[in-house]
Each structure stands twice: as structure tokens, then as C-alpha cells.
Design goal:
This protein has about 230 residues and is α+β, with helices and mostly antiparallel strands. It contains six helices and four strands, in the order αββααααββα.
């Protein structure tokens, strides 16, 4: 291709550079707009495809969970009859195969909750605290007990702290203190939240239990990618 040279004044050359820069900016802007439209189109297409897949899998998981819980409902009822477990007194049940290779746990997650009678128990415990002397040992015990009586954001005592409270009550030998703790314990009424199923299998090499992931969060898709690359 023949190259031609053009004579320009300095002013004309600067105008040429400015026009060239403006044109390059317009071309870059148009390219970004086109790429953005392509990106948005790809996002929309992917969302539609993936949403349909995930909705289907969610329905499958829901049906599978209901089916599994239905099967174990009969097992739990028989367990309650044979072993004598009070209905509603246990929120988690673990079953292990006879050869100890498969273990399934079904149940409910719970949050601490109490009946209104817990307030009488707390009052009796506080009454015991107020009866203590003012020596250093008593002051230390008072602070520990007060800390155990502190509540969460929902106004409930922590069940683990009540266990420690029971220990102090038994060590004190004070009948009112023990009775107050018993009232707190009897008022304990945990609230069911989410229902769950956990599956563990025995690893043949290490002989350790290995959890089988049953949710999107727990599944590691990188394992599949690595296997495909091999």
C-alpha cells in the first residue's frame, strides 16, 4: 500500500491528535457498551438455566428429606417403645448399622427456651445469693452465679450455664438454692427450629467416620473438577 505524507501546521496536527483521541475514546466506549450487553445477556441466560436446575434439585431434596424422615418416624416410635424414651423428650436420634459402617442422625436443631415458672426458680437462686456473707470467697461465688443467670438476646438462660448452676447448688448444700435450680431445670422447654439429617460412613482405610455432604454448602465441586482434569 502506498503511503502518502501530508503536510500539517502545528495547529492542524494538534487538532488531528485531538480528533484521533476522541475517536479512539468513542470506539472504546462502544466496545465497552457492547461487551456489557453481552455480559448482561450471558447473566440472564445463565440465571434462567441455573434457576431451573436448582429449583428442581431443591424439590428433589425436599421430597427426599420428607421420605427419609417418614421412614425413620416408624423407627423412632419403636425405639421409644422398646427403650422407654418419653415422646418429645429427645430431639436427636442416631442410628448405626450392625457392622458399624453407616450412621444416620435425624432430628431438630433447637434453641433454649423456658416456661414462665423459670422466673420463680431464678428468684429463689437470687434469694440465696443475697443471703451470702461479704467475705472474699462469697463475693467470688456471687459473681459466678450472677454470670450464670445472665440471659441471651431472647431473654433465655443458656442451658449449659444451668448445668454449672446445678453443680454450685449441689456443692452449697442449701435446700433453697437446690430447689431454685430444680425449678429452672423443670421449666426448660427448648424450641425446635430446623429439621436435619446427617449421614456418616466409615472410611475403609482410616476407619474414621466421614460425613457425606447433603447440602449445596457442604458439597465441594472442586473435587469433581480435579477428577475431570485427571
Amino acid at each position: 500500500m502506498e503511503t502518502k505524507s501530508v503536510q500539517m501546521t502545528e495547529e492542524e496536527y494538534q487538532e488531528y491528535l485531538a480528533m484521533k483521541k476522541k475517536r479512539e475514546a468513542e470506539v472504546a466506549k462502544e466496545r465497552r457498551r457492547s461487551e456489557l450487553e453481552a455480559y448482561r445477556a450471558l447473566v440472564d441466560t445463565t440465571l434462567v438455566d441455573v434457576a431451573d436446575i436448582l429449583r428442581e434439585k431443591s424439590q428433589d431434596l425436599t421430597k427426599t428429606k420428607a421420605y427419609v424422615m417418614g421412614l425413620f418416624r416408624e423407627v423412632i416410635e419403636m425405639k421409644q417403645e422398646v427403650i422407654g424414651i418419653k415422646e418429645g423428650g429427645q430431639y436427636s436420634h442416631t442410628f448405626t448399622s450392625s457392622d458399624s459402617t453407616v450412621r444416620i442422625t435425624v432430628g431438630y436443631h433447637t434453641v433454649d427456651g423456658y416456661l414462665d415458672t423459670v422466673n420463680e426458680g431464678i428468684a429463689m437462686v437470687r434469694e440465696y445469693i443475697e443471703s451470702l456473707g461479704s467475705d472474699d470467697n462469697s463475693k467470688a461465688l456471687v459473681q459466678m452465679i450472677l454470670q450464670l443467670l445472665s440471659t441471651d438476646q431472647q431473654g433465655n438462660l443458656k442451658a449449659s450455664r444451668v448445668v454449672q448452676l446445678r453443680k454450685y447448688a449441689n456443692e452449697s448444700g442449701d435446700a433453697r438454692f437446690v430447689e431454685g435450680v430444680e425449678l429452672i431445670e423443670s421449666a426448660y422447654m427448648p424450641q425446635k427450629t430446623r429439621q436435619y439429617i446427617r449421614l456418616d460412613v466409615k472410611d475403609e482405610e482410616s476407619n474414621a467416620w466421614r460425613a457425606i455432604p447433603l447440602s449445596m454448602t457442604d458439597v465441594d465441586s472442586n473435587n469433581i473438577v480435579r477428577e475431570e482434569e485427571q
